[in-house]
Amino acid sequence: MHEVLLAETTYQRLRSEFDSLENVRYVTLNETGVLRSAGEELSMDEFDLSMLLMDVDLFQQGQMERLLEMLTDSRSLEYVHTAAAGLDSPIFRVIADKAKVFCNSNAQAPAIAEFVVASVLNRWHRFDVLAENQKQANWQGNEFKQVLGSNWLIIGFGNVGQLIARQVHGFGASITGVRRSTADNEFADRVCKLADVPDFLDQADVVVLSCSLNSATEGLVDSAFLKAMKNNAVLVNIGRGALIDDAALLAALDESEIDYAVLDVFQTEPLPTESRFWSHEKVQVTPHSSYAGSKTTERYDRMFVENLKRYVAGDEVFNLVDPGSF
Question: pLDDT at position 326, please?
């Protein structure tokens, strides 16, 4: 009998799908920390965590400390599927060390890619100016910068980075992708390694950070990085807040060393109310929500159900995490 722990809300949403699977027991966790199976409350000693769905519902329940305790105490952890794409949190290292099979997600990639393109278009087309002109009944022309002919440097050319490239490639942009492997990609004009990034900064109209946070990328965007960028360039961070030296970025924006920053992630989250990013006229702040498209939950659910079916049947799963990638 397989036992799967998941958020109570997720189980209720996908119950019809789950009921079709045989030899699976579902244990749910709610926002108060109560464990239940088949409607009956369980104590910790009645359940040894072996399979786990870490979807957005579970992350938002505020039970991560208890979940970490369960992961640490588990004697038979087999399978974990997380909705996260980035795996820099310490909890994922615990999972990678203990689970036989560990999968992450690319369900959020289309939403994040769309968010990035929309945010850059918003800056270049200046929809804020257009809205103000309309409000004032001001018939004023608005010349805008196009994606056509622009250069994009995408640091972190995985699922998200490649979808961004695919979309802006359709507009006629030139793309440089940055990743460990420099194998050709149909949506990139060139692919290079992280060490080569300085060679392309002065050509990039948009620099996108979609890479993981590790010893090589922490503090990547420092004063030297920003000074090397074009003064009309846009910096987009949908990776991790610690990729950027905040003080250096604020100084670069103040001195017009770059034009604009689109920031969806921050070193401290929630972003403190006293942060200058909130009020800076050259910054777009969003609360780590670039993944929150209308189709993302549907994609998460479909991916988890399909992978669970594969695992229970003994078939190959997708989005398998390489333990050596940590």
Answer: 65
